[in-house]
Task: structure prediction
Amino acid sequence: QVQVVESGGGLVQPGGSLSLSCTASGRTFSETLIMGWFRQAPEKGREFVAQIVWSVGNIHYADFAKGRFTMSRDTRKNTVYLQMDALKPEDTAVYYCAAGEAGSYTYWGQGTQVTVSS
Result:
């Protein structure tokens, strides 16, 4: 059974930083593996944050994440990270990690709360 587990959320002041991590386990993924971060703020829909195409290491960011968020990976552990800097109150959301293949996300984590507040 595939598990996607995030960790690292919390409360941070505006301008601060947080790092999230996510591990996908339970099966051997194909070369088309993608892993991504999404978020959902209160009363808003889920939105894309960043993703990595595992086979080539290409990373794509949402416009709001460019220059502030950095996604990285550990290929040995099937783990991805999201370093978030210069956080703003509008970054407050539940952050979800997802894994999938062939361009489709199938497996989702339970989410981790990120709160940016003074």
Summary: Residues 15 and 86 are 4 Å apart (CA to CA).
